Amino acid sequence: MGIVINQSIKNVVITYIGFGIGAANALFMYPHFLGEEYYGLTGYILSYANVIFPLMAFGVHNTLIKFFSHYKSEQEKSQLLTFILALPFLAIIPILIICFIGYDSITTFLSKKNDIVYNYIWQIPVIAICMAYFEIFYAWVKVHLQSVFGNFIKEIGLRILISIFLFAVYFKFLTVEQFITATMYVYLACSLIMLFFANSVKKIVFDFKFPENYKSIIVYSCFIVLSGSVANMLLDLDKIMLNQYVKIENIAYYSVAIFIATVIAVPSRAMHQITYPITAKLMTEGKLVELNELYKKTSITLQIIGGLVLVGILVNINQMYLLLPKNYSIGIFVVFTIGISKYFDLILGNNNAIIFNSKYYKAVLFLGLFLAFLAISLNKLLIPIYGINGAAIATLISITLYSIAKLLFVVLKMKLYPFSIQTLYCLGVLIATFFFFYFWDFSFNPIVNIILKSILVSVFYIFMNYKLKLSSDFNNVVNSILKKVR
């Protein structure tokens, strides 16, 4: 776990810095500089691009990680990478042809509730392609265990560029309409930067000979592209469907709430950058004992760290919304609902990496397709009745069922168990912390209140988990920090 902890800590720091910048964007600059309508438009475009980018990538960013350790020589690895870079065009070309031929019909349908969407639909596939190749080049550096810089670009670099353009809107160098287009160029720039870095980590050499087992690669990619699409659909489907039923301003309110709740998933995102290739390697070598140990460690470590973030958000949520325009406060229920779903997904550790590198990935895919259908049905039913709260409830149900299904597959089929008695103790600490701190606030400025309360929550929560010795990795990190302080 040494390299996991080392790079995970760096990735956590980078990701939280990125989320700090993102918080400034999402909670201040977007609402005040763009306004509700164009903030909602931005959220809609990026969510739609995020849903279709796994299709544009053809799932090969996961395929590269799974199959990389199968090849030993540099020539074989070059053949694999060349094949991986070419496969997405099997999806990109037909999609672009369909979009070109049916553009008017597609844009008319998507903008029937909000006319403002009409002129920007074309940017969605462009951004999706940029996202796809960013992830492919990012996967290339992951398999060489160099995930930190890619995470920096994804979490910090992209948001800094967005901040620059938001300030350009504020100082009237750009119009709000031009900002939407500028966002597309930000994603293009990040993809190109990732390409150059990937080449510097390990020179990209093209070899157009089909790699060994290329049929297995294609079959795996076909299933993974659908699986990845399902996972992303469950994350962003709600924003897409909100556009069809409510005014686009509601997407702005929902986006803020989702951003706040998504902070809970940061530790998982950071750790998975490095645990994914290690999981693939352990499964390829058949080291199930070591894999089960990694599974348990990632689960409890993420539960402790994610729990701190969750309780920190929930006990301060009312004060946070005092810093936003009044209309945004309707998203508080969304924060609670989505936060709980993120926390449950978090405590599954490296569950996704295990499944996608096992022989059971096909079965989980079909289950995921069913749950995607369920999510669409629930959103269609609940959004017209409850608005953004209905979308949050639909997402909670869908993601929770999907997470339970994946957990059962790993437990029942592979006999790998993420939970232990420490899981219950950690949950008890979380619940106790919430009830102890939620029902009171300091009578200060909201920012001061949030800072003071967060310090108290952090000290109490960390102390309890440390004394109970729930995670050796967590305690080692705390001991290391205490040693440096002393």
Describe the structure in your own words.
By secondary structure, the chain is mostly helical. Helices cover 81% and strands 0% of the residues. It has 19 helices and no strands. It has helices at 2-57, 60-68, 74-86, 89-101, 103-110, 123-142, 148-170, 176-201, 214-245, 249-262, 266-284, 288-321, 332-346, 351-356, 361-386, 388-414, 421-437, 446-468, 472-485. α2 (60-68) packs antiparallel against α3 (74-86) and α2 (60-68) packs antiparallel against α9 (214-245). The radius of gyration is 22 Å and the shape is globular.
Please tag this protein with its features.
486 residues; mainly alpha; 19 helices
Strand content bin: under 5%
Structural class: mainly alpha
Q: What is the overall shape?
A: globular
Please state the CA-atom Rg, rounded to the nearest Å.
Answer: 22 Å
Uncertain stretches of 5 or more adjacent residues: none
In oligomeric terms, what are we looking at?
single chain
Helical run tally: 19
Mean pLDDT: 85
Along the chain, the helix and strand elements come as: HHHHHHHHHHHHHHHHHHH
Distance between the termini: 26 Å
Report the biggest beta sheet as strand number plus sense, adding barrel if it closes: none
- Percent of residues in helices comes to over 70%
Q: Using DSSP, what is the number of strands?
A: 0
